[in-house]
Batch of 2 targets.
Target 1
Amino acid sequence: AASTVALVSPDSLFDFSSKIDKVRVGLVGCGMRGQVHLDELLKRNDVEVVAIAEPDQRMIDRCNKIFAKHNKKPVTYFKGLDGYKKLYSDKKIHAVVISTPWEFHEEQTIAAMNAGKIVGLEVCGAMNLQECWNYVDTYEKTKVPVFMMENVCYRRDIMAVMNMVRKGIFGQILHGQGGYQHDLRNVLFNDGVKAYGGGVEFGEKGFSEAAWRTNHYVKRNGELYPTHGLGPIGTMMDVNRGNRITHITSMASKQAGLTDYIVKNGGADHPNAKVEFKLGDIVQTMLKCENGETILLTHDTSLQRPYNLGFRLQGTDGIWQDIGSGGFSQGFIYFEDEMKHSHKWASSEDHLKTYDHPYWKKYEAQAEGAGHGGMDFFLMNDFIECIKQNKEFPFDVYDLATWYAVTPLSEKSIEGNGSSQEMPDFTRGKYKTRKPVFGAEDYG
Ligand code: A2G
């Protein structure tokens, strides 16, 4: 059943003394990702975008076009890397959406909580384990809620499978897989002018994600982007809500894909051809849950490949495997009783249509045209509706800490030749009594 747990407790630093009908939002970071959020927010009449902190004038120009498209006047922009601090001092703002380079998430999120602003935080993994505890400790001190903005949880096929899991169609769940399997070579490198491709520059000579994301590939070897896989699978397994991840182990292949790409597109003499990228092309991480399930995550972004997050969910009564990007027919399914022990896959289409989640059916029309096949509508809708209705976020600070923690733990495991790493219980025992909320039939 839908949760009745309040989003904001009475002792919160967030002032919830009067009911909120119109949520006043500030955007921290309005690059390519923030602009998708801006577009979604400007469509809604229960939201007012109050201010934007964005240091790059090229991104501000793009934001201005989005305001113009919605016939709205641009708002105040705070420039400079510290612009977010000025934005947080605006008393009018209820909530902020943070879509900045990964290395800024910690300071910007903690400062927002301390300023009494509800946070929607974009996906990535933590820089170190302490970061994860800092989110939890600051939440417990301020009681200012954080929404972990994992959009793939809202993918239509995922929500249909989630619905089937909740109804027990797969029987007992034993194993799940997912990951981030997306050829990012033209995201990681560009010509410094366009956001995607056209050159092999990164860092100071790169633009958009190439200006910062690629640096993580130079310096780190681990599961850098765990949440697109772990969000959906962890939610299906009730992680932090009756279950928890106990330990993890990771292994990485060698690196070759990025250097190969630089040589082929920029020539063997290009200085970047000599860069030693630390990140292995394929990083695999196994996670073990207290209730007995295993999860396999794969990070695969440096080689040519079609997009596919590689979901698989397996139980005593059936199995689902995705091979596409969210369409109902882009997957396989097998239930031996129904399929007369054929040992052959069937298209997932009929089953996913039958179990299409009511949340999707309800908002299908509004989600049309929203980012990533519509799921970005549902993500933002939950953020705003939970605030308006004072209803707990489906993915909260404990999920943020756990999902983000996979990154530093996997780095350590790889360094130790696959050594086992303990996942802390960020809930400090509360996982035993916290109830699952996401995906129930009356959800949303
Ligand atoms: O590529 C996709 O949009 C990713 N999202 C997003 O997380 C980011 O990595 C982006 C790169 O520009 C999904 O795959 C859902």
Target 2
Amino acid sequence: PTIYAITPTYSRPVQKAELTRLANTFRQVAQLHWILVEDAASRSELVSSFLARAGLPSTHLHVPTPRRYKRPGLPRATEQRNAGLAWLRQRHQHQRAQPGVLFFADDDNTYSLELFQEMRTTRKVSVWPVGLVGGRRYERPLVENGKVVGWYTGWRADRPFAIDMAGFAVSLQVILSNPKAVFKRHGSQPGMQESDFLKQITTVEELEPKANNCTKVLVWHTRTEKVNLANEPKYHLDTVKIEV
Ligand code: UGA
Ligand code: MN
């Protein structure tokens, strides 16, 4: 199956560095299609020219987050992930048979190559541990006799699916047979996006544990430090135009 990675991304000083790191990983994965969705009113020149040289099958989408949703404490990238889902459904509306696996790949996380081997065998919805998240070294689904029976987490253990966006994959079949499943703004509390989405397409009992019964961390919720630009000149001082 093809792995479809949906990556929301937005303009900031570290953007090209993040995308470079991500492309360097994805380029080593067979049959990966990268759906990069810019949080912007139009496709940027930076991302367009980056993708053109990335050496990866890709689709470049864009949708701006409404201003009222750009606030601390509100979920990020809802509209962008939905745009990726809409593109997938549109593209496959006439050819349902093609096997595929969908994965939400934020631009700042760290992905091992083994992770892609694991998720490729997803039949419906698969899950695995995520490192450096929830105020712990890792969060993970608790597995008994090959079934998910609970969650090891340090944060909001009341979540129906106590899992980060980087902790699951969904087969294309499931996405196509649940055409209304989307990420929701309305009533979605911080950290509940994953649960709100997964509730629409699966149950805890149905989840397929990967990474040796969820005992191996193969992806890390790394976050990039905010860059210090304190010494950046107010006016353009450099003598030539720099691509950065
Ligand atoms: C955590 C989760 O890991 C995310 O999947 C979830 O979207 C997010 O919380 C949330 O609060 O909604 P965190 O590291 O805090 O992640 O979030 P970011 O990495 O800053 O953002 C997640 C993704 O959305 C990234 O790919 C980022 O580039 C993108 N993003 C972020 C936008 O497209 N627009 C923004 O304004 C901010
Ligand atoms: Mn992040």
